[in-house]
Amino acid sequence: MPERPRAILILGGTREASNLAEQLCRREGLRVVSSLAGRTMKPLTGAGEWRIGGFGGVEGLATFLRDEGIDTVIDATHPFAETMSLHAVEAASRIGISLLTLLRPAWERRTDDRWVEVGGLNEAALAVPEGGRAFLALGSQHIGAFAERADAHFIVRMVDRPRQAPPLASCELVIGRPGDTVADEIELFRSRSVTCIVSRNSGGGSYEKIQAARELGIPVIMIARPVPQPGATFATVDALLSAID
C-alpha cells in the first residue's frame, strides 16, 4: 500500500496564501488543501484542493483536521483575522498537530506620511474629521462602526456590490478590487475629492493606496494590528517554506 501523502491545510484569503499553495504543490508527497472564508462572490483560488466557507468554530475546524488527516496547519489569513487565527491555535492544539503562521510585516510610517494611528474601528470612526470625505479601505463587514457619523461622507470600496445599502447616512460605492498602480489610486481619490483614508495596517500588497495618500498629502487613519497569536511565525513565504521538510 502506498504511503499516505502528508496533508497540509492552508487557511488562506491572501496573495501570500495562494503563492504558498502553488509552491507547495510543486513538491512531491504533499496534499495541499486551501480554505477561504468565501466573503467574495469570485474568490481568488489557485493550486491544490480548495474549500470555501467557515468550519463552524473550533469544534468544526478540529473535526475537519481529524477527518481529513491533516498533519500541518498553516495560518496564512489576513493579519486582522483574529477569530480564525485563534480557532487555528486551539484546534491544532486539540488535535496535536503543528501550526505555522505566515504573517507579513506591517507597514512602517515614513516621515512624509500623515498617519493618525488608532487602536480599532470605533476609534477610527471618531477620528474622521467633521465634514470630511473619507475613503474606507475596509471590508464590508467593518463599516458599521461609521454609521453614527452622519456629519461625514464616505466612499466605500467593495469587491462585490452588496445586496443591501451600507448603514451609512451619506456614502457612495466603488465596486471592484484595489487599483493596480499608485496612479490608479490617485485618480480615484481625486475624482471622489477624498480628504482622508481609513485603512487597517495590513502590510504586504495593496500598498498603492498608502503611497497615493502620501503623494497627495492626504491623512491616513491607520488602524493598528491586533496582537498576533503565539507560535512559529514567518514573515515571508520563502521563510515558511524552508521550515517545511
Automatic annotation (TrEMBL):
NCBIfam families: PRK08057.1-2. InterPro entries: Precorrin-6x_reduct. Pathway: Cofactor biosynthesis; adenosylcobalamin biosynthesis. Pfam families: CbiJ. It comes from the Bacteria. GO terms for molecular function: precorrin-6A reductase activity. This is Cobalt-precorrin-6A reductase. Keywords: Cobalamin biosynthesis, Oxidoreductase. GO terms for biological process: cobalamin biosynthetic process. The keyword NAD does not apply. PANTHER family: COBALT-PRECORRIN-6A REDUCTASE. The keyword Oxidoreductase applies. The lineage of its organism: Bacteria, Pseudomonadati, Pseudomonadota, Alphaproteobacteria, Hyphomicrobiales. Its EC number is 1.3.1.106.
